[in-house]
Queue: 2 jobs
Job 1
Amino acid sequence: MRKAVFLLIFFPLSLAAQTALSIAPKQCVWKKGEDPDGNMGWAAPLLDDSDWTPVSKWTRIATPTPFFWLRCSFEPGQLAPAVEPQLQVSGDLAWQVFADGRMIGESGNPATGNHTAGLAIDYAAPEFSERNHPILVAVRMTYTPGVNGVQLLPALSLGDAQLQRDAYYRAVYERTQGQWVTWVCYALIASAGLFFLALYWFDRTQRFLLWISLAWLSLADLRINEFLGASAVHYSSFLEFFLYAIGQNVEAFVILFYFALNRRRVPVVFTIVLVINCYYWAALTVSAFLPLQLSMQLRFDTEISFWMNTIQILATVLSAACVPVAFWPLRALRGWQIPLAAVCHLWMAMDVAYSVVQFSFLGIDVTTMFLKIQPYRSVAIAAVVVSLTLLLVQRLRTTNRDRAALQGEMDAARRIQQLLVPPMIDSTSSWNIDAAYLPAREVGGDFYRCRVLPRGTHRVLLGDVSGKGAAAAMTAAMLLGASEGHQESSPGKLLAHLNGVLNSSQVGGFATCFCIDLAPDGSATLANAGHLAPYRNGKELKLASSLPLGVTAHEDYDETTIRLAPGDLLTLLSDGVVEARSATGELFGSERAAALSTEPAQEIARVAQHFGQEDDITVLTLTLAPAGAAHA
C-alpha cells in the first residue's frame, strides 16, 4: 500500500507520458478450441491472429465447448518507470498464461477445468520490464459449467501489483456492499427455512412446513453461492456449480407449498410444470459429476439452448402463476390469509419479472437485471417469511385450544375405558381369573366383564366391537350397560338380548361376543356370537357358533355345556392376538395362539404385541381351583 501511495504522489496523471500505474490490454482477440499442433503455437507473438474474433463479440453466454484461447497486446511503455510490472489475472476458470510465447504461470487444471473460484493472481516476468515494444499475452482457457449460464472472459491488467490488488478488492467490496439488502433478507430467509424444517420434524402433519423450508433453503443456497462468488471467496469450482445445481428445485417446492398450505391437491397442469422443474434440477445436478465435455454439453442442452431455455423460463413463470390458483377464491380468505395471500402475490410478481428477463430473444443483460431485481425480490420473500410466521403462530394457538378440548375428550374416553376393563375382577375362590388388556389406541373396542351371579355361578363376558378408537369404545360401553340386570338369563339368552340392543341402536357395525357361566363344581355353559373359540389346556374347543351381534335382527345363540376338572385352564382371546402382524406381513395365527394358550395372560398379550400389534389385544385365563383350594 505504501508503494501505491508513493507512486500516486510522485507520478501524477498530469505528466505527459509514462505515468500510468496500471494498464489494460490494448486489444484482445479470442478463438474457440485447442491448438491443433499441441505445441502452444497459439501463444506465439508472431502468430497471424487476423481470423480470430474481437472480444467485443464475446457473448458471455455459456457454450458446450470448454476450451478457448485469448490473445491480448500490452504496451509496457505506458507505465511509469518506477513501476515493476506484474500481470494480474482473475476469473472463474482454469488457465495458463503466456508472455511472448513463454508460459509464466497457471491456475487450476486446463485439462479437466477444475479450479478455485475467486482467485486473482499476479505474475511477474522479465518480458514485462521491456518498455520499448508491445508484449503479447496469451491465455489458454478451460471453462466448467458456471452460475446462471454465464461464461466470462478473465480480467487482465498490467501494472503495479499492490495497486492492482487494491483495485480488485475495492471492486469486490463494492459488489458485496451494493447487495447488502439481499444478503440481510436471505440471512432471515435461511434462518426461517431451518426453523420451519425443525417444526416439521416435530409435527409431520404440517406438510407445507416441509415444502416452504426446502424452498427457502434452496433460495438461500443460491444466494450464498452468489455471495461467495461476489466476495471472491476461494472455493472449489465443483462446489460452486453443485450448490447452484441443487438450488434449482425452488419452483417445485413452491408449487407443493402453496397447494399444501391451502389444503388442495396439485392440479394436473402444475404437476407437469413440477416434473419439468424436477428434470431441470436433476439434469444440472448430474452434470456436476460428469466428465468436462459431457458436463458442458448436458448443461448447455438443459439450460442454455434456445428451446430448453425457453421451456424452463415458461415453467418458472407458470410455477409463480400457481399462487392465485392455490388461493382462489380470494373472497373466501379470512384473517391472516389475506395479508399472506397479498405478499405471496408480490413474491409471484417478482419471480415473473426475474424470469422474463432471461428470455434470450429479448437481448437483456441478465446479470445486470438480476442485480437490480434481486433486492426487491428478497424483500418480497422476507415479507412472506414474516407473514407465514405470524400465520403459524395463529395456527399454533388454534391447535393448542383444539388440543385442550381433545384432552378433555380423552379424559372422558379413559373413564369409559375403565368401564370396559374393570381394574378389579369379581371372582370366587373356585376360579382363578387372570386378565390382560392392550388397546391399539388410547381407547379400544374390546371389553370384558366378570360377575358372580346370585346362585354362586361365575359369569364371564368377552366382546370385540368392529373398528377402533372412541366410537368402538362407546358401542362396547353400550353393550356392557345392556348386559346389566340380566343375571337370570342364560348365556344364549343374554347374547340374543345384546344382539337386539345393538340392532335397535342403529350405531352401525357389529360385535363378536362370548359368554360363559362357570359353576363351582366345574360345569360350564358357553354361548358364542362369532367370537374366537376358547382353548382348553392348549386345545381349541369345538363349539357351535352363530353370527356376530348386530348382523341380523333376530338370532338364536346355541349353548354348549362342558365339565372342567380341577386345574383345567380355559384361555379366552380377542382377535387382536391371532391377527397381530409382523413387519414382513406374517400373521401371528391360530397355531401360535394355541401353542401359547397355556401361558399366563400377561405373557400371551406381551408376545402378541411384540410380534406386531394392529388391533386391541385382550386375554383372559380361567382356572378351576383344586377342591382343597376352593374350600379354603
Job 2
Amino acid sequence: MLRLFANLKPYAWDIFWIVVFLFAQSLAELYLPTLMSDVVNNGMMKGDTGYIWKYGSYMLLVALGSSLCSIVGSYLSSITGVGFGRDIRDKVFSRVESYSLHEFDKIGTASLITRTTNDIIQVQTVMVMGLRFMIYAPIMCVGGIIMAFSKDRELTLILAVVLPIMLILIGGLASVIVPLFKSMQAKLDKVSLVLRENLTGIRVIRAFNRLKSENERFKDANRDLTDTSIKVNKIMATIQPIMIIIMNLTSIAIIWFGGIRISQNEMQVGDMMAFLQYAMQVMFSIIMVTIMFVMVPRAQASAVRINEVLDIEPEIIDPLHIKKSGGQGGYVEFQDVTFSYPGAEEPVISNISFAAYPGEVTAIIGGTGSGKSTLINLIPRFYDVDSGCVLVDGVDVRQMAQKNLRAKIGFVPQSPILFSGTVSENIRYGKADATDEEVAHAAEIAQASEFISTMKDGYDSQISQGGTNLSGGQKQRLSIARALVRKPGVYILDDSFSALDFKTDARLRVALKKETAASTIILVAQRVGTVMDADRIIVLDEGRIVGIGKHKELMSTCVVYREIVSSQLSEEEIAK
C-alpha cells in the first residue's frame, strides 16, 4: 500500500494543512479537560461565579475552534482521498489500455473490473479515514497519557494495565482478519465473473434452458462470498462490545480509586474528572486505531491486487528507435512466421509465408481452429510472433510505433463490437473528424444505409451498449462502415460477412472492390462463395499453409480446399 501512497505527491500541501488543522484540533481537545478541572476546582468548589463565567467562556471558544478545525480537516481529507482514488483509477485504466491481449487473458476481464472499482474504493476509503484518524488518534493518545500523568501519577497505572490488553486484542484481530479479507476479494472476483458470463450469455442460457443451473452457480459463488463476509463481520462485531466493556471498567476503576484519593485529600474532584476525560480520550484513540486496523488489512489486500495490475509490463511496446515505412503503401508480407500462445505446447501457426499487395484481395480460408484469426491478429500486432516477421509497407511491425501501424489498418473483428451512442458516432469511431458525407458514403458502401434510413432518427439513432438493438448482420455492416470511413491502406475483414445473406454479401463485395481499389484487402471467410473471386486464396490446415492460388488453381492442386468447396457447393455450382 505504501507504493500507492507515492501518488499523494500532488496533494502534499493539502496533507500539510490537514496535519495543521488536526494538530490544532487535538491541542484544543486536550486543553478542554484542564479548563474544566480549573472551573470545578477554583470556581464551583469555591462558589466563584465570575471565575466560572470567565473560564467557561474560554471553554466555549476552545470547543468552537476545535469544531472548526475538525470540519476543515475532514473536508480536506475527503478532497485528498477522492482525488487520490481518481488518480489511481486513471493509472490503472491507462495501464490496462496498454496491455496486449496476452495480459488481458492473464488477469481476466472480471478481475480487472473489480480491481478498477471495488479495490480502489477500499484503498480510497482507508485513505480518507487514515488522514483523519492516523494523525488525530496518535496525538490524542500520547497527549492524553501525558496530561493524565500530569493530573495524577498513581491513577495512570490503570492505563498501564488497560492499554496493553487493548493492543494485544488488536494484534490478535489483525492476524485473524487479514487472510479473510484477501479471500473476500478473490471471491468477489468469482461473483463478478459468474455475473458477467450470465449477463453476456443470457441468450445462450435461455436457449439451452440453463437458467436453473446458472442460478445455482451464482448462488454458490454468492454464498461463498457471503459466508466469508459474515465471518469477518462476526469478528468485527465481537471486538466492539469488548472494547466498550474495557472502557466502562476503566471508568469504574478511575472513579473508584479516584474517590479513595479524594477522600484522602490527595486529589481534587476537578482533577479526577479531567483524568477521566483524558482516559476516555486515550481509549477512544485506541478504538479509532482499531477501526483502522480492521479496514487496513482489506485495503492492503486490495492494494496488492492494484499493484499487480500496475506492475505487469506490457509485452508489446514501441521500440526505442521507430522506423518509418517508406515502401509500397498497403503491402503486407509474412516471412516464415511461427506463433504460439503463452503456455501452449504447440504453435498455433507454423512457417507462414505469403505476401498481400495493394489493389488485390487476399482471402484466407480453412477449417475451424486452423489459425485464421490468429494469423490476422499478428498484422496489427495484437500479439508478437515467436519467429519470423510480419512486414507492413516493408517494415517489421515490431519496429513501428503501434499508433502509426494501426492507423494504416481498417480492422473488422469476427464478433462486431459497437458502443453506446448514435449510429454516426459508431461509424466515426474509425475517423473522429469524418464529415457527414464521409459517414453516409461509408454506410452506403457497407450496405448499411438502407436499414439506417428506416430507423427513427437515421444516423442520430441511438445504439444500445454492445449493439443489442441491432441484428447480427446490421452490426457487421456498421463495423465494416467504421473501417471504410478510415480509408486505410490495409483492410482486415475477419469473417465479417458471416451474418449477411448471399444477396447482401454479393452487393457488398462488389461495392468494396470499387471503393478499395488502391488498398490491400485481407479477407477471412468460412463461405467459399465469399472467397472464390479473390486474387489470392490462402488455405490453412492445422496452422500451416497447404495451398495458395486462385479458385480454379486450388481446385486442381489443393485437396483441403477441394473438400471445403465440395462440402458447401453442389456439383452444378462447382462446375460453373
